[in-house]
């Protein structure tokens, strides 16, 4: 029988994979993909808890707003990445080193 | 009994799809492969939403994440195209500690989750959610709803301003 | 329409005015190319001033929750609304004066700033986890864009990229923590969370998941207030961003971050006890964690500032250290501590903004933020040098300047809670900080330099610096007013 724990394990795995992506990738767009993985894992948590613990739609409403926030953040992040590409001809984070530290 | 088994099978299929694609996102050397991995991850998550009885959310996930964010990421990669086929593997010295750290995080999460007694409200029976969500937007959630529209306005102005060329 | 909703709208005027001003600024920016510069500026200033005026009558309103429990109106919320609008107003007045913006159109800047102000006001009053997340993201997103405002400047761009990536990861992790809390308590309303946790407090069985959840939420909150170890973005972002934006970030979103820090931990995760003290639940004792955070933050911030040669970087580490002191007021779990936080923030607003304004003025004349270009400034502009010295002395906490009161209150709150050792650590840190503040003073006042050309400061910049100087110097004169205001603002709405 599929229960709450199944979904939680999947979301924990997604969260961990997202953190892994953020920690090890040097390309800014890749880090952004890691962030999307993290946000999706949180959303999965919300919807699963909404069904199994809260018993109402609170979690689902929260998830809708998270999707909204994620979309806006992705748009702005990509705008900044494109702007950086135009200035530097590179989106490799190793090159973003004019600010030391 | 048979139907139960089939539905369990389908669940595990989508779970594997989601996690497998996420692994592709993280470990693939090619940026394009990563993006398509992300596509299937979003798709898998949407399927899991359907399993959880969140029909409106599953549709929203597909439309916004796949139709919006993913396309945006694809544009981002294509417009910075000189780099998408670069070998993006970092030095091994960085991957192993990160792997250990992430494994520790995952382990802690699983440990914590299995030891917890979650809040026991009612379990929600599957039924169509769209009408109910619409009503909630206009009642209990009206403030976040309005704030979200101002939020999106800010994001719109900001993103357009950043990429605008020409005189500052 | 629900009559309660209409009643809530009557208490929502400041936010509505800010939103209206934002929309007007956007329209004015597009519509009138000739008048654009002055019109958008005037609209923004008027809107912020009107919003400030509208927050004052809210002090007299009965505390209660608004919009179905999403935000609360209580004395602390009103205090922060007024504080944040004032901070935004001061930054808007200072922004056009910076040479960094001389080639920029500031219409979008004002719009973004107004959006961030709206987000901060909502953040400071949020009592629901969804509202908390949404308004935090609103503040952050606006900030990310403002940092990258000079889109042809490589440093500004790089700073905003680092900021958004770091910020998105932190708030993503925080969101995951929020979802775990939702799972354990079945609700997103902080008031109900407290009730659920109080009921289960006897059994410590959920302590691990609550610990994980709290640590993750601290990641997001710590990022916002730039506490160690979530501070990594701070020096680079402060250095790369246009200086008015840096000044804004160091004061306003930080204060809003503290407001929600207090509100979340006190409303959601603590039990109100007798005589205005709080206690943590058995299952989630967050006090030692935040205490460690405070100590590490102030120590690291001060030590890192010692070696800095760039003024903006130095101010970044300085503000990290100040966040550590403010956290001390949160940790002691008394209303005296909360009052200390409010006092500290008020003094910090004026002295920090004042210091940044001087940095802006010096940049306008010399084009540099490096300390070596500050040498011998006393002979070039006694006004700027003396004002800077006053702000630095206040940041050090020297009596009778304003900064002393902030530190005094925080340390006194710690001592009164039998945490004298904690206050001693803070005091030692303050002494360490004297070194780098005095170093700047010495460079400006005593060191010689070859360039002796006098620097004239325009009257409007002078006026603004005086606006910062007067509270910094004169706080001791109207001390009892501030005392009364802050002690009356400590009330938190804790649910019906």
Folded structure, characterized:
The complex is a heterotrimer of chains A (101), B (168) and C (496). With 101 residues, chain A is an all-alpha fold. Chain A has helices at residues 4-24, 28-54, 58-88. In chain A, helix 1 (4-24) packs antiparallel against helix 2 (28-54) and helix 2 (28-54) runs antiparallel to helix 3. Chain A is elongated. The termini of chain A are far apart. The model of chain A has no long low-confidence stretch (mean pLDDT 88). With 168 residues, chain B is mainly alpha-helical. Chain C is mostly helical and 496 residues long. Chain C has 2 domains: 1-166 and 229-266; 286-489, no CATH class. Chain C is built from 20 helices and 4 strands. In chain C, a hairpin with a 4-residue loop joins strand 1 and strand 2 (71-73). The model of chain C has no long low-confidence stretch (mean pLDDT 90). Classes of the chains: A mainly alpha (101), B mainly alpha (168), C mainly alpha (496). Chain A binds chain C through residues 15, 18-19, 22, 28, 31-32, 34-35, 38-39, 41-42, 45-46, 49, 53-55, 58-59, 61-62, 65-66, 69, 72-73, 76-77, 80-81, 83-84, 87-88, 96, 98-99, 101, and chain C through 129-130, 133-134, 137, 141, 144-145, 148, 151-152, 154-155, 157-162, 164-165, 168-169, 172-173, 175-176, 178-180, 182-183, 186-188, 235-236, 239-240, 313.
